[in-house]
């Protein structure tokens, strides 16, 4: 992280902090009490043993849904599930291992109303998933790409995928089609931005395919703004970890507020391919609302190209949807 970047982001943080101090007495226009009754509905939330995922799962379960906490560490998942007041269960899912993704999907039977692709890692040191993909691209994006397509024949309502404002951070993030793993040029923030841009492009192309197939299922995306979770604690840079720790204290929303954006996308009547984020300054905090995205994230040609490559990399393709899902 360069000094100039730190100065720019610090200015944003201070601006949002001052703005937040001026408006933090206002009531939240939309919150978990506005979630419609979810009785009889089933949801899967990936990465639901802490942070945004647990907050999302808790809110849906409280509203009456049966929620599956799809987690890598089932012991931690069971501990998290014990804190939820509602109908929940824990199933193992390691998004950094396509065999685990396939096993999870193969074990699913019956309808699934909502899939929330929440899990992710952020700015971690260079590494590889079990299948050899760069860790952030493989975990945040490719694992969810495979999971969604494998579960899609069961999904009846919508898919919500987590992105980030990092998809339009300084440096004009793009998909590095010539080097998706960033071999020889790895930078943690570049890799994270690419993975979150990929999630928006995935949502765009998924919605196009669902519409073409005559499916009522909707694909949406959301981002939490700046939410204080343990996600930032694994940053590869000590300087960034300190910076994020300060930001978490001064400006970040808590996990419950950050999760409102995913919940809004999951239960509100929104058009397919909608993108939800906080409505405050720089989309860092505030009430859920439709959010802005970069021109690259809105490019259907780039979305189609990424989809084709993702099918080749994962061996998972868009399924032939049955009449049951389309009805």
TrEMBL record:
InterPro entries: KR_dom (IPR057326), NAD(P)-bd_dom_sf (IPR036291), Sc_DH/Rdtase_CS (IPR020904), SDR_fam (IPR002347). It comes from the Bacteria. Keywords: Oxidoreductase. The keyword Nucleotide-binding does not apply. Residues 41-229 form the Ketoreductase domain. The keyword Oxidoreductase applies. Pfam families: adh_short (PF00106). PANTHER family: PHOSPHATIDYLINOSITOL-GLYCAN BIOSYNTHESIS CLASS F PROTEIN (PTHR43157:SF31), PHOSPHATIDYLINOSITOL-GLYCAN BIOSYNTHESIS CLASS F PROTEIN-RELATED (PTHR43157). Belongs to the short-chain dehydrogenases/reductases (SDR) family. This is Short-chain dehydrogenase/reductase.
